[in-house]
Design brief:
Blueprint (H helix, E strand, L loop, with lengths): L7 H4 L10 H18 L8 H13 L4 H19 L2 H6 L1 H15 L1 H8 L1 H6 L4 H16 L25 H25 L5 H15 L13 E8 L13 H20 L8 E3 L13 H14 L3 E8 L5 E10 L3 E9 L13 H7 L8 E2 L7 E4 L2 E7 L6 H9 L4 E6 L6 H18 L3 E5 L5 E3 L5 E2 L8 E8 L6 H5 L2 H27 L11
Parallel strand pairs: 1-2, 2-3, 4-6, 8-9, 9-10
Antiparallel strand pairs: 1-13, 3-4, 4-5, 7-8, 10-11, 11-12
Helix pairs in contact: 2-3, 2-4, 3-7, 3-10, 4-6, 4-7, 7-9, 9-10, 9-18, 10-11, 10-16, 12-13
Amino acid sequence: MTLQTPAPSAVAPATGPQPLRRGVALLLAALAGAALLASLPPYDLWFLAPAGVALLAAAAHRRRLRGGLAVGVVAGLVLFVPLLEWTRIAAGWLPWVLLSGAQAVVLALAGVTAAWLSPLVDRWRGLWPLLTGLLWVAQEAVRDRAPFGGFPWGRLAFAQGDAPSLRLAAYGGAPLVTFAVAAAGGVLVALFWRRRPGPAVLGYLLAGGVLVAGPLAVPVAAPGAATSTVAIVQGNVPRLGLDFNAQRLAVLDNHVRATQALAADVAAGRRPQPDLVVWPENSSDIDPIRNQDGAQRIAAAARAIGVPILVGTVLRSDVPGEIRNAGILWHPVTGPDLDQLYVKRHPVPFAEYMPLRPVARLVSEKADLVKTMVAGRTPGVVRAGPVTVGDVICFEVAYDDIVRDTVTGGAQILAVQTNNATFNEAEARQQLAMVRLRAVEHGREALMVSTVGVSAFVGTAGDVRASTGFNVDAVVVREMHLGGTRTLSTRLGHWPEMAALALAAIALIGALPLRRRRAGTAPAMTTSEDAR
C-alpha cells in the first residue's frame, strides 16, 4: 500500500502576507485603541488617529472573523473605557462598563470587516485606503444609530479639531472627515504590509500626504456680513455631582445674578449691550411656566439686561414623572414666548429616560432617579429678534441630522446649551470638539454654553474664541456673524454617508468569491492557530 501525495493545489499556502501572531495582533489592537484615545479631547493628538486605524487594520488582516472580532473588541475597550469614564460620575461604574463594552463591540465591526476583506486587499493593494475609509464610515454609521438611537462619541471626525481634515466637514460632514482620516490609516497599513520598496510606495506616500495635508487648500464657508452681539452666561453650580438637582434654586439664582451683573457692566459702559443672552441647559431646573417664584427670578434678569434670554429649563407635565428638556425664549416685557420653544428631540437613554427600567434597576441603584423625558418633534429654530438661533441641547450636538435640521430651518448661528455639572472637564472638551466640527460643517458661527464650563464661541473655520474655564462662573460677550451661504454638506445631508455605506456593502459582497477561492486553496491538513 502506498500513500498518495496530495495535489499541489491542496497544500500550497495561501498567497500574500500571513497573519501576525496572535500576541502581536492583540498588542497592536491595544496600541490602536490607545492611539485613538489620545487623538481625541482632552489629549487632542489628532495625528494619532490614522495610526490607530492602521494598527487595528494590521492586527485584523488575514485573520479569521472571530480573530478580527477579538482584536476589534480589544481596541474598542482600550478606547472607550477611559474615554467614557465621565459617565461613571453620574451613573456609577457598572453602567460605565456596560456602555463602554457596547461601544467596543460595535467598533469591533471594523476588525471583522477588515478580516473579511483581506483577500480583496491582498489582490488589489491599492484598494486598502479606499476600503478602510468606507468601513470606518459604515462602522460609525451603525454606532451612531443603534441601540436606542445610538451614541456617536469617539468618532474619528471629532478628533480632528486642530487638523487640516476638519475643513472637509464643509463638503461632506463628519462622515467625509472620518473617511479621510481612516483612508490615511489605510495608506499606512498598506505600506506596513509591503515587504519591499517599489514604485507603489511613492504613490502611497503621495496619497497619504494629500489625505492629511491636502485639506489645507480647501476653503471653508465665510460667515455672513451681518452681526449681532450675544452674551453667554455660565453661572456655575454650588458643587459638582448628581445631587445638584436638589439645589436647583441656587443654580437659577447664580444665572440670575450673573445676568444682573452683566446688566450693571453694560450700564456702566464696561461691556457692550447684547442683543441676546443665552443660558445653559438646566439653568432653570425649576419649571418657570408652572412655578411663579422661578418665573419672577428669570423675569427680573430679563428686565435688567433688557433683551431676550434663551433659558435652558425643565418643563413638567400633568403626567407624574414626565418632563421635557427645553430652551425657551424669555422677553424682558412679555415674558416666556411659547411659540419660540425648543424641546430636546433626542433624550439620552438610561440618563434622561429609562428603557427597560426593571432591568436597569438591577444594574444601578440610581435607575429610579431617571424620569421620563418626552422628546420634542420640531427642529430647534428659535427666532430671537435680530438673530435666528439653531438651538441644540447637550448630547444632540453629536447627531448629524439634529444639527442640520436647524440650519435648513433658517438658523443664522448655532447654540449648544449643555449641563456638564454631572461630568468632568474631559467630557466638556469632547463636546466642544463636536461644536467645532458643526460650525465648519454648516458654515455657521456657533457657541456652547455650559452651567459649569467649558463655554466658548466658535468660528466657521472651527477656531475657538473666548473659552471659559471649568467649574467657574463666567460671562462672555461677543459679536457673532449671522448666516452665510449654505455649505455643500448642508445641502447634501446624509447622502455622502449613504453612498459610503452602499460602497462598503458592495466591497463586502465582492470579497466573497475571493474568500471562497482562498478557502479552496488553503492547506488541507493544517491550520494556523495564529490566524484565530
